[in-house]
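Before the break, one more example. Copy the sequence into your notebook; we will annotate it together after we see the structure.
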Amino acid sequence: MRSFASDNNSGVHPAIIDAVVRANSDHAVGYGDDPWTATAIQSVKKIFGEEAEPFFVFNGTGANTVALQAVTRSFNSILCTQTAHIYVDECGAPARMTGCTVTAIPTSDGKLTPDLIRPHLHNFGVCHHPQPKVAYISQVSELGTVYTIEEVKAIADLLHAHDMYLHMDGARLANACEYLGCSMKALTVDAGVDILSFGGTKNGMMMGEAVISFRPEISENLQYFRKQSAQLASKMRYLSAQFVPYLEEGIWLENARKANHQARRLEAVLKQYPAIQFTQKMESNQLFFIMPKEAARKLSEQYFFYYWNEEICEVRLVTSWDTTDEDIEHLESSLKELLSCY
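Here is what the structure looks like once it is written out:
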């Protein structure tokens, strides 16, 4: 079934499948001491720089919890937006695994700013209060918006001035880079990001993420946090092998370009209808808009998608690397029929 529900629903790029099949030859030492993982580590360093230290894990929630454990202690607090994945969609795993207070900050566009962060930078050294230690941002944000390089740098500079860290959730980092026309290195380590949850599952990979540390003191104990969090794969090669073609062959950018392009096509289709009102700027492969309830109900009979806010009938549609022109055209035909009376 084709859908616009999530890029998690899309298939796996053929080159990624091939990489997994090639890794399935003979025996290999477990837990990452294999040639595929060694190659994948070098592939990551080519993209992000020699200071990058990747630790491969099973999934996004695992990546976020491992990363946040590496930069906090239980008396710290984690700052994020009110819509942040770690606050809304991970069943409290980051708070449970770190023991930290998660402070959610309201935003209109899913993005933190220095001005939003500053009011929470207080009570340092006071034992009665949680100690702010890290800010978590998502690239792309949960509302489909993109942080520019300058915006990331401004946040990082503020945090570093207070001996804090910046953690970026890069589940859709590739889409952000395609939109901005920049490299992943420029948008992460060069902009002051200290630790990155790097994902490709939403962009053509089968499974697996990487926690990438850009600071030696963070890298020091990451292997232990990964193990304690049940995120160390015994047959690591099947996770790490995917990153080699994904990075070396530019699949990350190729797929993001396809997904973003189809989102722009879909945006143009939706903008034809006065009954549809966009609630966020379309800067990646996610579209947020309000539509008439009855039309949305009928559309849901043909397509699986998520309501972002049912009270106002706010819908989220997501395009993927394998969204086809025919997918867009079919949806356009359905919308034409459903919205003709509005």
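The chain has a mean pLDDT of 97. The domain at 13-251 is CATH 3.40.640.10 (Aspartate Aminotransferase; domain 2). Try to locate both features in your own notes.
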